[in-house]
UniProtKB/TrEMBL annotation, chain A:
UniProt-annotated stretches for the region Disordered: 247-288, 332-358
InterPro entries: AAA+_ATPase, ABC_transporter-like_ATP-bd, ABC_transporter-like_CS, P-loop_NTPase
One Pfam family per UniProt: ABC_tran
Native source species: Actinomadura spongiicola
Keyword Nucleotide-binding: yes
Entry-linked SMART domains: AAA (SM00382)
Protein name from the UniProt record: ABC transporter ATP-binding protein
Composition skew (Basic and acidic residues), residue ranges: 343-358
Alphabetic keyword roster: ATP-binding, Nucleotide-binding, Transport
Limits of the ABC transporter domain: 5-241
Length: 358, 262
């Protein structure tokens, strides 16, 4: 079903270097959230803190009623079973082939028979497009393949929370698109909470339900996708426009004089382009966490630029949305239970698999 | 500036030893957790044997020979040729073999273990393991520490035997000693506790080398260079610790076990 992560006033430093401070956010259960930020702002450190690999200096991480930094060792190991984590470099066990890597959690934590393990592993390998490479060692495959194998391993125990560190670094654009589709479909199928760190603007604009931006040792903003995509905040605009103009410099932040010069010459990160329609899961799947297109803008009196939510085929998703949801829920035989936002997903709302009763 | 230096001193004198000690305690606890990782233990023991046996023998033979030559010459001047066998025993079994063992265990086994764990650490394998609910201390460190100790015991025996044979060879073949005298004096002064204390030393050395290597490996950071640094530090720190332990155990041994009279 997915579990909510509630972070309150989290601060982390290494020695005298403060990585980020006072980070508070709620990653809604069952939704896909994306975390952005310039290189080196501590996104990987944040993910590692969420699974208790790094101890924050202050603050709370609530997973249900458990405060992660204050759990005993055994409780922590227990809680970690909720998580699937894909590390930045895949973090496969170098001495095992891909099959054994993916099978590892099953062999450790379940009493499944070897034949069943094989079925599950091959299923996940197919999902990430690695069928046929089971017997390769991690040292013998490309970085992108390691990523995908790491993802298969993270998925094998059907986690409630999936933390993914840069799924698209080292991956070609086509595979990135496929992988994003895998995330959407997975989210629809297992309803897990996703938190994805990425540098890919295209992914950030079209994949998630929520976006967060880490900048200058703070969480600059975290909220629904439409909120950030229509934001007036210079940092957000610069980052999402991939612009050189704005407060983010090559090394952390620009100094005053540079910013003044930019302001005097009338340079600006520029307005954000129209909000693109959100990517949909494959036919027959509905994600519980999906926001109705335009709902946030309407609720907050923001006028999206003309042409927002129109996809390549010319469909306007603001109009298309109710029809889409109706047809999907009808196909699933559950008319009426339509996820529409804004607002938090109702935790009682389960996933809707077309054809499968839930 | 003085703050930096102060930080460094606190780090080296207090924090690092403290963290190392914590790791030792945690490893001790993990050692008694079920199930024991037999496979890993056997694999590691075999691996350590494979990197240490040949160098050990190659060091032990000349070591025994040199001791015989040096001590033999001295003893002959004192007119006590018949005791060369005895001196070889004392020198080789009591001191030289634990020392040679420690050099090899620290230099070869410790370095290999640290490199292995360190590269797993920087590839984030250790983190992944923890996230998958497996305690790396139980899975990786305990079998390695025990394998190190086990192999050290075995190496110590090997060095004693090979060293004595080397000594015998040099004494009898090159210094015209007689086999009878060598063996007789051997019997006169050798005692079982000599061997036992040497084996005890070897065990302690093995555990120490395994723990230091694991500690340094688990704290490696900063890419491949970080692993290289960790291996380097492992070897140096292990040497220092082993020589210190050797001294302490020898001193205790002389207090506790009276030497056999001649
Ligand atoms: N174990 C550690 N000890 C000390 N400093 C660390 C450690 N891990 C990370 N850092 C520091 O924390 C900062 C943030 O690192 P992090 O890897 O989280 O960045 P990131 O946002 O993931 O960057 P990228 O987008 O390039 O992956 C860096 O300055 C790094 O030097
Ligand atoms: Mg990172």
């Amino acid at each position: 079903m997915g579990v909510e992560i509630r972070v309150e006033g989290l601060t982390k430093s290494f020695g005298r270097q403060v990585i980020w401070q006072d980070v508070s956010l709620t990653v809604p259960a069952g939704e896909i959230s994306v975390l952005l930020g310039p290189s080196g702002t501590g996104k990987s450190v944040f993910l590692k803190s969420l699974v208790g690999l790094l101890k924050p200096d202050r603050g709370h991480i609530w997973i249900g009623d458990r405060d992660l930094p204050r759990l005993s060792e055994s409780k922590l190991y227990e809680t970690r079973k909720l998580f699937g984590v894909l590390f930045q470099d895949g973090a496969l066990f170098g001495s095992m082939n891909l099959f054994d890597n993916v099978a590892f959690p099953l062999r450790e934590h379940t009493r499944k028979r070897e034949s069943e393990i094989k079925r599950i592993v091959l299923d996940k390998m197919e999902m990430v497009g690695l069928l046929g490479a089971e017997h390769k060692l991690p040292g013998e495959i490309s970085g992108g393949m390691r990523k995908r194998a790491g993802l298969a391993r993270a998925l094998v125990l059907d986690p409630e929370i999936l933390l993914v560190d840069e799924p698209d670094s080292g991956l070609d654009p086509v595979r990135t698109a496929f992988l994003n589709q895998v995330f959407l479909d997975l989210n629809a199928q297992i309803g897990a909470t996703f938190l994805i760190v990425t540098h890919d603007i295209n992914t950030a604009r079209t994949l998630p339900d929520n976006i967060g931006l880490l900048y200058q040792r703070h969480l600059a903003m975290f909220g629904p996708r439409e909120m950030l995509l229509s934001s007036e905040e210079p940092v957000v605009r610069q980052f999402l426009n991939a612009s050189k103009v704005g407060p983010i410099g090559m090394s952390e932040e620009k100094d005053e004089s540079e910013l003044e010069a930019e302001a005097r010459s009338g340079q600006d990160p520029g307005r954000l382009p129209p909000i693109p329609p959100q990517q949909m899961p494959s036919d027959g799947l509905i994600r519980a966490g999906m926001h109705a297109p335009g709902a946030w803008c309407a609720a907050h009196g923001v006028t999206p630029p003309p042409g927002s939510f129109v996809d390549e085929q010319g469909r306007d998703w603001v109009e298309e949305w109710p029809r889409y949801v109706a047809s999907m829920t009808e196909a699933a035989g559950m008319a009426g239970s339509v996820p529409s936002r804004p607002g938090r997903t109702d935790p009682s709302r389960r996933r809707y698999d077309a054809g499968a009763e839930s | 500036m003085s703050g930096r230096v102060g930080d460094g001193v606190v780090n080296v004198m207090i924090r690092e030893p403290g963290r190392f000690f914590a790791l030792c305690l945690d490893t001790g606890r993990a050692m008694f957790r079920w199930p024991f990782q037999w496979r890993e233990f056997v694999q590691q023991a075999w691996f350590i044997v494979s990197v240490t046996v040949v160098p050990t023998m190659l060091v032990a033979i000349p070591f025994g020979g040199i001791l015989s030559l040096q001590v033999g010459g001295l003893i002959r001047q004192l007119g006590a040729q018949s005791y060369t066998g005895a001196t070889a025993v004392v020198a080789i079994v009591r001191e030289a073999s634990p020392l040679v063992t420690s050099l090899l265990v620290a230099g070869a086994a410790g370095a290999a273990i640290c490199a292995d764990i360190g590269s797993r650490k920087i590839r984030e394998e250790i983190d992944a393991m923890e996230v998958l609910g497996i305690d790396p201390l139980h899975r990786l460190v305990v079998p390695r520490v025990l394998a190190c100790a086990f192999v050290a015991l075995f190496l110590n025996g090997l060095v004693s035997v090979v060293g004595l044979m080397g000594g015998y060879f040099f004494n009898v073949m090159l210094q015209d000693g007689t086999p009878g005298a060598y063996l007789a004096s051997f019997n006169a002064i050798a005692q079982l506790p000599d061997l036992l204390q040497a084996e005890f030393k070897a065990f302690v050395f093995g555990v120490t080398a395994g723990l230091v290597a694991s500690y340094k490996g688990l704290n490696a950071r900063g890419g491949p260079k970080g692993v290289g640094d960790a291996v380097n530090q492992t070897v140096v720190i292990t040497f220092m610790l082993l020589f210190l332990e050797n001294f302490l155990i020898s001193a205790l041994y002389f207090q506790l076990v009276p030497s056999k009279g001649m």
